[in-house]
Inverse folding.
């Protein structure tokens, strides 16, 4: 994938915000340098698309801060053939990063208007290895399981049980776990002896709303 628009801005973003803060996985750095983030934000925000911040993408949702996208992606240790489940398609930016690095991405979004926009933007980049679903992602995608990696990009009170059940042996999962105000990025690996988790830093995401997430009204 090659995109020349705003390339210098992207390189600066990767050097300062991502590599500069300790993310060293070369494939992840290359993916963030390749995917044009400005195409995933509203046109009026294109000039700040490479800033060190989350941005609104409509329907009350946000595109995550680039550093957080890089940190979560690196935690998944993706290989080229991996099958990845993503919960919270949003703008589709993180989806595009995953599709660039893995074999096949299954992504679920609860808001149809966001899913449609994401599908259009990801397809426009020539990334055809993505399947989309509009549904409650806390239930996962059982027919496509097991997954080598699962990424939740919305705040959840706990790691949703169906997602853990759909994780392959040695599969990785990353999710912001906590309350509505603040979460900790939890990274888990399904080892033979069970799920082994570590905390990878504080974060703040919009809520995961669903059966195994937060209730609809809060
Ligand atoms: N990864 C996105 C950011 C997503 S913000 C990006 O790069 O732009 C979180 C998204 O999760 C929102 O779009 C929200 O609508 C969605 N979401 C919240 N609860 C969900 C659920 N139960 N299933 C699927 N998507 C959900």
């Amino acid at each position: 994938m090659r995109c020349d628009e705003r390339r210098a801005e992207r390189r600066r973003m990767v050097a300062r915000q991502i590599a500069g803060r300790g993310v060293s996985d070369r494939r992840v750095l290359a993916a963030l340098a390749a995917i044009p983030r400005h195409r995933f934000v509203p046109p009026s925000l294109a000039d700040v698309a490479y800033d060190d911040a989350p941005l609104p993408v409509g329907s009350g949702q946000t595109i995550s801060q680039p550093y957080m996208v890089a940190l979560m992606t690196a935690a998944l240790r993706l290989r080229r053939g991996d099958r990845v489940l993503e919960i919270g398609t949003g703008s589709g930016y993180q989806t595009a990063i995953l599709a660039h690095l893995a074999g096949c991405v299954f992504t679920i979004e609860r808001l149809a208007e966001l899913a449609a926009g994401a599908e259009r933007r990801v397809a426009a980049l020539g990334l055809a290895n993505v399947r989309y679903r509009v549904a409650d992602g806390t239930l996962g995608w059982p027919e496509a399981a097991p997954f080598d990696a699962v990424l939740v990009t919305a705040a959840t009170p706990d790691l949703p049980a169906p997602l853990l059940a759909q994780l392959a042996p040695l599969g990785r999962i990353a999710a912001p776990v906590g309350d509505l105000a603040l979460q900790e990025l939890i990274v888990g690996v399904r080892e033979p002896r069970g799920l082994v988790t570590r905390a990878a830093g504080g974060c703040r995401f919009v809520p995961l709303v669903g059966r195994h997430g937060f209730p609809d009204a809060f």
Summary: The chain has a mean pLDDT of 96.
